[in-house]
Design a protein that fits this description.
Order of helices and strands: HHHHEEEHEEEHHEHEEHEHEHHEEEEHEE
Oligomer: single chain
Helix content: 25-40%
CATH topology of the largest domain: Rossmann fold
CATH superfamily of the largest domain: P-loop containing nucleotide triphosphate hydrolases
Shape: elongated
Radius of gyration: 25 Å
Low-confidence stretches: 400-407
Number of domains: 3
Largest sheet: 9 strands, mixed
Structural class: alpha/beta
Number of strands: 17
Amino acid sequence: MEQIRKNVLAQLDMTREYEEEELLAAIDEEICREAKKRVIPLNWRRELRMQIFHSLRKMDVLQELLGKDDVTEIMVNGAEHIFYEKQGEIFAWDKSFSSKERLEDIIQQMVGSHNRVINEAEPIADTRLADGSRVNVVLPPVALEGPVVSIRKFPKNPILMGRMIAGDSISQECADFLKILVSAGYNIFISGGTGSGKTTFLNALSEFIPKAERVITIEDSAELQIQGIRNLVRLETRNVSPDGRLAITIRDLIRTALRMRPDRIIVGEIRGAECLDMLQAMNTGHDGSLSTGHANSCQDMVSRMETMALMGMELPLQAIRAQIAAGVDILVHLGKLRDRSRRLLAIMEVDGMEKGEVRLNPLYEFTEMGECAGKVCGSWIKRGELIHKGKLYAAGVAWEGDKDYGL
């Protein structure tokens, strides 16, 4: 294959852009020429044709995996070892890059397409593909066994709440409850571990944002798929570039967003000092803001928010906790269970402070009830009632008792 690929490249005029049909015709011609020297079975010719095409125009051996809708994650551990996740399980891919240099070419193609830089001096980069897939790259000398690429794929059609209910990721009652809270402008923070579905859930919640509102999204690498909002502004961070352009951080973008007349601010993920800016935005009239963060529980998310906010400014811990208690209304925790299913595990209300600690009011909790045919069975149990209903009333939500409410 490599020799045929080199022969095709030798024939191409690199000063012009080729249409797909032209490129495929050149590949076919070279394969026919090679077939006169040795036997190439017809089925192998077809596969060889597409492999060479992908290596010249797209993502080489990764293109086939990128084209599979049921593949959710692709992991490249050096040129020779490729793995992928399908339906929650990880499999080894029987194909590999022809060389380390070829993998490095693909990495530069990925990173360069979105004005990112990666080299030995800056061996770590985050970027995205044209289809929105999230990409993380680590180069040697940080990666000891060769370049490492992790690609998180997102479905072409966003997973909305109805599909999550059908997939038993959340109950209808919990979904209806969250719909009310999002519509009424409650500030909601989504927590969970890696791969628990935080971004997917955030996309699903955005379905409930009133369509007339102005929404600003802020991300390290744009991957949110906000639905149905016409007045939508999408902002993305920028790293320092070799030509002297300064970095633009999440913190910079949050501060800028406050001057852009947002109804809601959505930050894809909070990882550090920007937590303080997000809390301040939530405390200055930007109701309905949404964000996500890594944590093992709702209580753990509160502790992590305290730590991250302290990265932004040296403030008394009590002042940080007061900001959290006043700014965040609802915590939603997600998890990936042992059967590889992703579930909503808890919904808790932030109920002010008590004895210097942020007090949480459990509202819903997923309770396991054993296993059925290898799948974790359970139900969402209501643990308490929403205490702070002021935003519901302000939004014109009719409240009839503790269990019956609607727009």
